[in-house]
Amino acid sequence: MSKRITNAKAVQSKSRTNEVHPMGGNRFQVVSGTSGNVYDVVLHGQHGGRCNCNWGQYRPANDQRSGCSHTLAAINFVAQES
Fold first, then answer.
1. Considering Cα of 33, then 28, then 69, then 12, what sign does the dihedral take?
2. Which one, of 59, 76, 70, 80, lies nearest residue 11 by Cα?
């Protein structure tokens, strides 16, 4: 069962404070703008991405896409580079 993001604007705002470092291919390290923790993000084209943060770990086994601010920051980074 997928869950809806009820605070999308807050996640979007938070994603803008994160620092994205490309690691090659579709892999990124994202430094949280609030905690300073570093997270690994793997993007899956237009199908979102996967993150190793706590939020990303609570996804169903058949759908590993994460709606966290770290994934959104990586997606925005790629979009700006295009």
1. positive
2. 70
